[in-house]
Design a protein that fits this description.
Length: 347
């Protein structure tokens, strides 16, 4: 057991992640592939599921040569002659979908993904000049109150973005509640929101396994950001509602397979930890809004460390998500400054 500050404890299946590029069988017909990432979060967990005479892939890793080299080694050494049957994507963030175009083209397979995630991935992967990335960053920073710095930081989003291969034009649609037959077993699709608009998790009752993607992580909290130029107006509310939904649909006994860190048991304890974490953060930002303030002034309330330019985007999105959720709860009110910045004060 591994306790944390909440006093709750998770039960980890392993003590440490396996070396990057290795494949580990963790349940009958379920293999764990540790894929390296060139970031402070230095790995992503991918999953290989027996699919009849072949193997289905869950998520891809990012679009860079090291990921391709790992995949080529897996194809040559770890599948026992089995072919890849299809690619299943949990959501459209670059570490999950970045190699989708390369894998589907190289292997001649098809992709399964929710429609909202496909639309987002397809648009961003085709944005060669980075205009979508820049515009979304500019809207974020202006609403957050950065003023003249907004243009500069929006420009850095282009230079620091993680590249993606062009997302395939055709796909099979994943929907909430559908039963996806993979090999001899049915996996139930459970859609979570907040971290991504239509994030697909997979639950298999007989194996008692829950592939959680980024929706439930054991040691870090998934980023939940409000993007002012997107339709999701209360992402934190959606995220918290998704935690409740998962808790009702998935038993505590499951082995949780997250996209980062280690597989673990005691799902419901982790759901409580995540709810408690956000409740504490909400209380902090509400207390700090004794006078109307923009999100940039609330970032230090939520993040007690120095942030680089890339991290500032995530932090600003998180701050706006918490502030807007407090508005939805009736605890804060929001007004707009002459320069377009949102100001948040006590309701």
């Amino acid at each position: 057991m591994s306790p944390d500050a909440s006093g709750l404890a998770l039960d980890y299946l392993y003590d440490a992640n396996p070396p990057a590029g290795t494949v580990t069988e963790i349940a009958p017909g379920v293999r764990w592939l540790a894929m390296p990432l060139p970031t402070s979060l230095n790995h992503i967990n991918l999953w290989l599921l027996d699919d009849g005479d072949g193997v289905a892939i869950i998520d891809t890793g990012i679009f860079w040569d090291a990921s391709k080299e790992v995949w080529q080694r897996v194809f040559a050494e770890h599948l026992g002659g089995k072919k890849i049957t299809r690619l299943i994507i949990t959501h459209a963030h670059p570490d999950h979908i970045g190699l989708a175009g390369w894998l589907t083209e190289t292997l001649g397979i098809e992709m399964w993904i929710s429609t909202t995630e496909w639309e987002m991935g397809y648009r961003i992967s085709g944005d060669e000049g980075g205009q979508i990335i820049r515009d979304s960053g500019l809207a974020l920073y202006r609403r957050g109150g950065l003023g003249a710095e907004a243009e500069q930081l929006a420009g850095t989003r282009i230079t620091t973005r993680i590249p993606m291969a062009r997302v395939p034009e055709h796909y099979h649609r994943l929907q909430d509640g559908m039963e996806l037959k993979i090999g001899a077993r049915n996996w139930r699709v459970i859609v979570g929101r907040g971290h991504a608009p239509e994030h697909c998790c997979l639950y298999q009752p007989e194996l008692d396994i829950f592939i959680a993607g980024d929706q439930v992580l054991p040691k870090i909290t998934p980023n939940v950001s409000l993007w002012p130029n997107r339709s999701e107006q209360d992402p934190l509310g959606n995220f918290l509602a998704s935690l409740d939904k998962i808790g009702r649909a998935v038993p505590d006994s499951v082995l949780v397979l997250p996209s980062h860190n280690l597989p673990f048991h005691r799902l419901h304890a982790r759901l409580r930890q995540l709810r408690d974490h956000h409740a504490d953060r909400l209380d902090e930002v509400v207390r700090a809004c004794d006078t109307p303030r923009p999100a940039i002034e609330l970032v230090p309330v939520l993040f007690h460390r120095k942030l680089d330019q890339r991290q500032m985007g995530f932090a600003m999105g998180e701050a706006l998500a918490h502030l807007q959720h407090a508005v939805t709860q009736g605890r804060l009110k929001r007004e707009e400054r002459a320069d377009g910045a949102w100001l948040f004060g006590r309701a």
